[in-house]
Amino acid sequence: MVGTVSTYRHVIALTGPLLPLVSFFARLPVAMSQFGSVLLVAGTSGSLTTAGIVGGILSAGQVVCGPVLGRLADRHGQRRVVLTAAAVNALATAALVAGALGGLATAPLAAIGAVTGASVPLVGPLARTRSVALAHRARADEKVVGAVHSLEGTLDEVSFVLGPALVGLAALVAHPAVALGGAAALVAVFGTAYALHPTAAVTAGTPARRRTGGARPTRQPRVVHAVRGSLALQGAMFGACQAGIASLTAALGVPGQAGLVYAAMGVVSAAVGLALGALPARFGLRLRWRVATGAALLLSVPLLFTETLWPLYAVVTVLGAAYAPHLITAFALTERVVEPARLAESMAFAASSLVAGQAAALAVSGRLAESYGPAGAFAVAVGAAALCLVIALVTRVPSTRPPAAVLAAARRTASPGGTAAGYAGR
Question: Which CATH topology does 16-208 take?
Fold first, then answer.
């Protein structure tokens, strides 16, 4: 326990205490925008179809443009990219609120939703990239780098639990427009603060000519594509669980419990993710990936036989313990094998895979829940978990950091910008 606390203190010393706090609040709008847009448009238009179209296109915009923003951050630096994206996203979110309240038709609302999704600043993947760059610049060991991934994964988990909860609370107490208005304010204030934080200097960007030395860019290792597929399936688990939980709680006459059940899963997942930093180095990423996906399959099967509320709470809460380890390991694998000069793009692609899987599974499992009951949706989660395990078992994973990545990290360490220690305390 003492060693774990010391490791996280080292992480905070690298980033400074303000950066994790700022990045957390900058992530909340991502978790609020899709759910908030669906509630807002459904309430103002009276059409679930219109709400689904707007929410789906918003998600599609994020999935398609997320890697593009990551590539721009790699080339031109996080500061300029996040400042621009945060400004556009805040304005687009405010426009979506105004359009919904003003009774705009489906097509213009969907167009605004597309801009909103496309301009999401992707603070989660970019914060991972920045924190890892700080760790490499300080020549931190793999345990500290692993703790960086655990902390960032925990911040993601908490934001994705708290964001929808805030939307639901605002809709209950006031109006969904309040939630989306709050999301616009958060991205404007904290997205800008994240972009302007002094640690942005460590991710100043590398122009394409300097990154490749005039040569064609190298292909991503196969394990990167396997991890993206695994994350898409993890997103499918999320979406299927959301649909199944909503279906079962509605059938039991307590639809208001759906958010609490899902939140319980997220809280446990975040706690386990934070504890993951205590694992010794001998538990390598390959083993962690296989154990996490195996646990997800084993712990998801009882969902198929859950028919009452309290067993649902128990099963879903325990299942949450498998989710964060998989997510953290997947992002850590991505960081280990890709070129540092392409890390933001790769992290954004991984996050977009998760969102894409969730959106697709939510649509499919919702229909299955209508036709076959909650077990139909939960079957999607179990199937996705099984495929995740297969991918983890058949994919070759490097046992150590490839030498090329080490050299690239060293080149970045030698680049201008000072040492990470200079950021501590800011």
Answer: Growth Hormone; Chain: A; (1.20.1250)
